Amino acid sequence: MMPNKKLSRERRGYIGLMRTLMAVCASLTCALVLFLIVYVLIKGVPNITWELLSTSPSYLTQRIGILPDILNTVYIVIATLLVVLPLGVGAAIYLTEYAKNQKIVSVIEYAAETLSGIPSIIYGLVGMLFFCQFLGMQTSLLAGALTLVIMNLPTIMRTTQESLKTVPQSFREGAFGLGAGKWRVIHTVVLPGCVDGIITGCILSVGRIIGESAALLFTAGFAHALNGFFKGLTSAGATLTVALYVYAKEQGEFDVAFAIAAILMGLTLLINLAAYLTQRYFRRKKAL
Amino acid sequence: MLGLVTVGCVLLITVYLIVSGIPAIREIGLIKFLFGTKWASTAAEPSYGILPFILTSIYGTAGAIVIGVPIGFMTAVYLAKIAPPKIKTVMESAVSLLAGIPSVVYGLVGMLVLVPAIRNLFRVPDGSSLLAAIVVLAVMILPSIINVSVTALEAVPKEYEDASLTLGATPLETYFRVSVPAAKSGIAAAVVLGVGRAIGEAMAVMMVSGNVANMPSLFQSVRFLTTAVASEMSYSSGLQRQALFSIALVLYLFIMMINAMLNFFLKRNKEGR
Questions:
Q1: A135 in reach of chain B (CB within 8 A)
Q2: What is the percent of chain B with per-residue pLDDT over 90, rounded to a whole number?
Q3: How near does any CA of chain A get to the CA of B61, in Å?
Q4: Which of A192, B70, B117, B159 shows its CA 20 to 30 Å from the CA of B273?
């Protein structure tokens, strides 16, 4: 790697230039990440109080609480996963284990790719038209969750598919050889072998759901009411991200906004860590 | 048959957007709608020209690409070829963290850091501008560009590099003159993916761009295709509402074009090997 004295001046100049550019850009990226994390945490953490976390907002006492928003986020994550998991995993199993018609497979894969490229605001719009108006759900968490199901379907499908492909063909053949039927092979041999892919897909989806806002603005609404799970699903409610947007842009409550941002940042860190740890855990287990 | 759900979803979205987007275009007139320069949906005599939004989206995306791609590309080369394993793991997790941060958080930080900074730096009355949106978008597309480019660069066969090294090129020359050209369709895919991300982003842009339907200029408050939909949806009605659906349809057509391009590059990348 030492700059060779025998190289011409031009070449040394080129190498030097590229090396500096690379160093500058790489450190810029790092600095950016660091700045974002530190800035949000410093501005946000002091504003997180127990009162903020444990109460619902009230105009009478001028109190702002984000408990309903936290609960709404949890509800929407649960509801979305409940629907998207069977759909996505089922679709992936169908594609890798059953589908014989190559044309259908390629059409489905193309559709999944298209879905993952559509911006969330369009999901929000179609979700509003279809779930809220056409199916008559009004603006509700359920409509929001169903919109997110469509959004996260490609993610779950792809990660499951990828890990289904890593299950060795010989496992399947062995099970077939012992006389097991197709479905039995899938649910006793193939599925346990790809749990890691499904879990990774889940974690990724949770991250996307928590971070999503544009798709929820018109489907799940802004309300801050405190509800139980089933009551909550049928009524409108803001998730943390939507609440952040409303507090920052429309009410100018930057302290609350930063507190929420800090919570979201913490969750993002946690989710990334969880994804990393599960991947490592399963890789080790497979290596044994 | 479960797999067909995805196809159904795509069809559903397409059909809904077309059905709800066409009436307004028909009423306003396609040329007047696409190339009209004045958007005044709530005026007494409303006019619905979305050229400002289209141009803003194009300029904003182009700006984000101009800033984001070089930085992302250089970082990717560093990560894929030079970085020691430890630094690489740390930086890769940092990049994936960047990808995971919700867009409203970008918007919030942009609103409170970037916007005042632009106001003070360039001495303009309001920092909420196209420039602020461009910078936020550039940061937001970094992770996709870095990740896809790194994958493409790592897939370059080692033999190419070895051959170049044996011929007397230094490692750095090899990376930039052999590996990068070999990975170029993968890197092109990364850029296209970045374009898709940037053009579809709504919330962060809405928080920093000021949201006034001006023709785009760097220091003025502007409105994107996405934010036009998002900002008026909640109180719109009648023709105005239908026009918003038409805007979404235009945005959707843009995205479809970008998707087709992305598929083209990815396919070529696969065939190249």
A1: no
A2: 11
A3: 14
A4: B70
- The helices-and-strands tally (H runs, E runs) of chain B is 14, 2
B191: left (phi over 0), alpha (psi -120 to 50) or beta: alpha
What value of ipTM does the predicted structure carry?
0.83
* A contact residues 30-49, partner B, Cβ 8 Å cutoff: 30, 32-34, 36-37, 39-40, 43
Question: Quick one: pLDDT band at residue B76, thresholds 50, 70, 90?
Answer: very high
Which domain, by its residues, includes A31?
9-47
Give the model confidence (pLDDT) of A252-286 as tens digits.
Answer: 788 888 888 898 888 888 888 888 888 888 878 77
Amino acid at A169: Q
Min Cα distance A87 → chain B (Å) is: 7
pTM (2 d.p.): 0.86
Say if residue A26 is in the same domain as residue A114. no
Whether residues A65 and A19 fall in one domain? no
In whole angstroms, what is the distance from residue A256 CA to residue A73 CA? 17
* Residue at B116: amino acid letter: P
How many structural domains is chain A composed of?
2
CATH fold label, B51-238+248-272? MetI-like fold (1.10.3720)
Question: Among the ranges A87-91, B7-11, B239-243, which has the highest mean pLDDT value?
Answer: A87-91
Q: Which residues on B lie below 8 Å from A151 (Cβ)?
A: none
Q: Give A272→chain B minimum CA distance, Å.
A: 7
